[in-house]
């Protein structure tokens, strides 16, 4: 590979160095010029720190919007928005029962763009919970959790649970009525766990009731512990996508052609080590499916598109709608009905029938079923297609449970009035 | 003979090596267990900063016979029947909301649990009756409620 700077004769003296300064700085930062050949496209993906998470080539199926719907990428970009807006909000927030609510009012009233940042953070958090759930549905309904991707599915389920917990801990921080009673109800559910339930609730809250200790603990979990856990798990999740052979796709109809190794005549100098396989004099022909394309620019353009789309939607929604803020905490007067965040309302609806089974028993069974799904369903057929006929049973069970959960959430959100009695929203 | 003695030497080495690796792995697991226990102890607070569980709530005259007064700050309902006093918890045994006084006893706004006048569950998801707390008279003549000491429902304090 040749670059302009290598060919250019170094001009003598300070004047020459100054004349070439911009070009020299540029070429020292970006080791590859904008790629124009396939080899340079490969090299760009391989040598750039931010791009080397991508494979050099990806299967065309990976880029089909109708296959992935871009849900995993949207989750990631929402998480990035949450980190950026969250760090900015931290500059003005104080986790104190006497100050937290006033800081919310300050964010709304005096801090420049404060209300906008809070809106972005709140709507991105809601969106992330929903999108991560939809991403899980996509992966299940296309059979993408099958061997060898079982463990990445498990990490994905843990990521979903961590996302829910992250959202839950953030819910308390505004210290308004909604926050206080949602957390009171939510942590009481934890208290129903057998044997260790009460102890767990006490350690989570740092006290017997929701108060200053609980606010501080939830704050630390929300801004430090859980984001760190999520970043680590996301890194493993992405790494495993590569190591498990890329995104799932239908099996090729024809067996792949035998690899043919050809020597590139224009590059005869020897390069050893791992990079030699990318940069070296050998190109492997035929060992990659013909229906794969270079990540640069195909994958990158797709990612850029999803990124711009995600950020635009969040910006528009945050301009149009303000995040709710209710009255400051009044421990004497629970709102009637006291409702948890929407994604826990299905849980709360079940809890209204039986606290143990609704809050602990059934959710635990659900979580275990999800975690063990790839180890229970060993049928290797139907990978890489939506609603494959071979997976009718598995898909039906999954969809039934998912739709049930959504129905319970809808009932809890719209059909429950004071004293949790059935009301009609119409 | 030399070969034999060599192998004997080796076998004599093995036990000590096995003991060492056993000790090392036990040490590793031991420190992990120790770390888990100390983490738990660290996160479980020894003192809490919330309101005291034992408090004075007023003179008996503040509660004339036949009253049922719910004190939301202390989360307790003072019941006086004739000369008998009792304190019933107003924290819902379901999910910790504050129950309100209703015509038939208590009802919870969060998930619709209902209790009768004595705190026995009559409907809704509540798994347990509302606990009764120990009531005493402090030397200064005020009623003292101890939420750390539960008494059997129906246990009254005579003033």
Structure summary:
Chain A is mainly alpha-helical and 426 residues long.
Description:
The complex is a heterodimer of chains A (426) and B (159). With 426 residues, chain A is mainly alpha-helical. Chain A has two domains: 316 residues, Cytochrome Bc1 Complex, Chain C, CATH 1.20.810; 36 residues, no CATH class. Helices cover 59% and strands 3% of the residues of chain A. In chain A, α6 crosses α14, α9 packs antiparallel against α16 and α15 crosses α17. The termini of chain A are far apart. Chain B is an alpha+beta fold and 159 residues long. Chain B folds into two domains: 44 residues; 105 residues, Rieske [2Fe-2S] iron-sulphur domain (Rieske Iron-sulfur Protein, 3-layer Sandwich). Helix content of chain B is 26%, strand content 31%. In chain B, strands 1, 2, 3, 4, 9, 10 and 11 form a seven-stranded antiparallel beta sheet that branches. The model of chain B has no long low-confidence stretch (mean pLDDT 85). At the A-B interface, α10, α11 and α16 of A face loops of B.
What is the general shape of chain A? globular
Number of domains of chain A: 2
Rounded radius of gyration of chain B (Å): 30 Å
Overall number of strands of chain B: 11
Percentage beta strand of chain B: 25-35%
- Helical stretch count of chain B? 1
Radius of gyration over C-alpha positions of chain A, nearest whole angstrom: 26 Å
- Would you identify the regions of chain B where 5 or more consecutive residues have pLDDT less than 50? none
Helix/strand/pairing category of chain A: mainly alpha
| Annotated CATH homologous superfamily of the largest domain in chain B | Rieske [2Fe-2S] iron-sulphur domain
Instruction: Name the quaternary structure.
Output: heterodimer
Q: How many strands of chain A?
A: 4
CATH top level assignment of the largest domain in chain B: Mainly Beta
Mean pLDDT over the full residue set of chain A: 86
């Amino acid at each position: 590979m040749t670059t302009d700077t290598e060919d250019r004769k170094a001009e003598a003296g300070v004047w020459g160095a100054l004349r070439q300064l911009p070009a020299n700085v540029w070429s020292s930062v970006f080791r590859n010029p904008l790629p124009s050949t396939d080899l340079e496209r490969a090299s760009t993906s391989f040598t750039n720190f931010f791009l080397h998470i991508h494979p050099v080539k990806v299967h065309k199926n990976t880029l089909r919007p109708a296959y992935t719907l871009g849900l995993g990428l949207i989750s990631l970009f929402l998480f990035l928005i949450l980190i950026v807006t969250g760090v900015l909000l931290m500059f003005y927030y104080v986790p104190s029962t006497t100050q937290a609510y006033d800081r919310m009012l300050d964010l709304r009233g005096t801090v420049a763009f404060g209300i906008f940042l809070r809106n972005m953070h709140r709507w991105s958090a809601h969106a992330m919970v929903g999108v991560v759930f939809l991403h899980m549905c996509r992966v299940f309904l296309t059979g993408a959790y099958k061997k060898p991707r079982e463990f990445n599915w498990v990490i994905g389920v843990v990521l979903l649970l961590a996302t829910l917990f992250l959202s839950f801990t953030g819910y308390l921080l505004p210290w308004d009525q909604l926050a206080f009673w949602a957390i009171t109800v939510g942590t009481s559910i934890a208290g129903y766990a057998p044997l260790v339930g009460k102890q767990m609730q006490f350690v989570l809250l740092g006290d017997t009731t929701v108060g200053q200790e609980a606010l501080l603990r939830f704050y630390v979990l929300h801004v430090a512990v859980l984001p760190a856990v999520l970043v680590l798990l996301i890194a493993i999740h992405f790494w495993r996508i590569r190591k498990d052979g890329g995104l799932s796709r239908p099996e090729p109809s024809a067996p792949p052609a035998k690899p043919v190794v050809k020597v590139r005549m224009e590059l005869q100098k020897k390069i050893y080590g791992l990079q030699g396989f990318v940069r070296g004099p050998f190109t492997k022909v035929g060992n990659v499916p013909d229906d794969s394309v270079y990540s640069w620019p195909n994958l990158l353009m797709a990612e850029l598109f999803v990124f711009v789309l995600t950020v635009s939607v969040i910006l528009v929604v945050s301009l149009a709608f303000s995040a709710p803020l209710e009255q400051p905490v009044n421990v004497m007067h629970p709102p009637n009905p006291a409702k948890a965040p929407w994604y826990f309302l299905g849980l709360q609806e079940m809890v209204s029938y039986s606290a143990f089974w609704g809050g602990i028993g059934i959710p635990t069974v659900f979580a275990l079923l999800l975690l063990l799904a790839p180890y229970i369903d060993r049928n290797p057929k139907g990978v890489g297609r939506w609603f494959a006929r071979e997976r009718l049973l598995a898909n039906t069970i999954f969809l039934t449970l998912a739709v049930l959960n959504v129905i319970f959430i809808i009932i809890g959100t719209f059909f429950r009035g004071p004293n949790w009695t059935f009301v009609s929203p119409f | 003979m030399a070969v034999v003695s060599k192998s004997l030497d080796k076998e004599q080495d093995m036990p000590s090596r096995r003991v060492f690796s056993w000790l090392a792995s036990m040490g590793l697991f031991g420190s992990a267990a120790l770390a888990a226990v100390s983490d738990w102890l660290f996160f479980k607070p020894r003192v809490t900063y919330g309101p005291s569980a034992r408090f004075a709530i007023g003179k008996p005259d503040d509660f004339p016979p036949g009253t049922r007064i719910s004190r939301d700050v202390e989360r307790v309902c003072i019941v006086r029947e004739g000369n008998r006093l009792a304190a019933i918890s107003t924290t819902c045994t379901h999910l910790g909301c504050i129950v309100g006084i209703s015509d038939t006893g208590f009802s919870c706004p969060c998930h619709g649990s209902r209790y009768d006048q004595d705190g026995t569950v009559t409907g809704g998801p509540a798994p347990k009756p509302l606990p009764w707390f120990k009531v005493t008279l402090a030397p200064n003549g005020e009623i003292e409620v101890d939420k750390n000491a539960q008494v059997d429902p129906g246990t009254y304090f005579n003033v």
